[in-house]
Amino acid sequence: MASSFLPEQARVPPSLQFPFPPVTKFKIGLCQLKVTADKENNILHARTALEEAAQKGAKLVLLPEIWNSPYSNDSFPVYAEEIDAGFDASPSTAMLSEVARLLNITIVGGSIPERSGDKLYNTCCVFGTDGKLKAKHRKIHLFDIDVPGEIIFKESKTLTAGETPTIVDTEVGRIGIGICHDIRFPELAMLYASRGAHLLCYPGAFNMTTGPFLWEVLQRARALDNQLYVASCSPARDVGAGYVAWGHSTLVGPFGEVLATTEHGEAIIISDIDYSQIELMRKNLPLEKQWRGDVYQLVDVQRLNS
Ligand SMILES: O=C(O)CCC(=O)C(=O)O
């Protein structure tokens, strides 16, 4: 029996809910794109990829982390867009909105540098089939790394961390959003699972140091821990870039199995999602019932404060 030291609404058992989504079987598209210094070209290129994915049957399409700008602290302020100021101030999100509406697809729009007042964020926008912005996720865990001789990168030099977990109901299920380094923090994924997520989407640009060891295993772990689908989307690798992305965009199922993946070049992955596999997994192995809330608990701070 769960102890009562936390208010009921703040306790987070795993995989508590399974809300019935409007669609349970559909195709997802993961667009692993080459990113250049030419923003206009990046936007056009992403548009073409979204169109190709939709044409191949994808109802949900995911873009990479920072797809309209080089991934660098020098570039973030230059390429940043004021998303809240409307589409005139944000050509990247204007394109996403238009394409979502015209092609009748849901878009998890990777991420772009966002300017808000005097702050910059690494931000993912989710657009529904009506072209409306359904959610905006600002990367919560900034990526600061210093491995001597291998990689030094400090997002915190220019970016501000987001403060809010983002879970969104779409026509293709309830989706929890994280950006790249957010995937390392299992509590965020558990929180989404406890709020009924079917799928976690992580636009991400892992690198040549941590990518080979961790990118896939982190996705499989988040899927296994929470018995749900996990999708990731990376930029294609550019060995001449200041930050070299690992690539390997991937879809993982609720058994922790890799359903689709790719190497490091440009690619559009189309793969099937079937949410009945989540129900099956949870029926076969009911972690929710085995969970020991009397021994450990995770607090949903938003619920606690609401
Ligand atoms: O966590 C890692 O190892 C990589 C994270 C990353 O590349 C990012 O957050 O952009």
TrEMBL record:
Keyword match Ribosomal protein: no
Keyword terms, alphabetized: Hydrolase
A GO CC term attached to the entry: mitochondrion
Ranges where the CN hydrolase domain occurs: 26-275
One biological process term in Gene Ontology: oxaloacetate metabolic process
PANTHER family on file: NITRILASE-RELATED, OMEGA-AMIDASE NIT2
Key word Mitochondrion present: no
CDD domains: nit
Molecular-function GO terms, alphabetical: omega-amidase activity
Stated name of the protein: CN hydrolase domain-containing protein
Highest rank taxon of the organism: Eukaryota
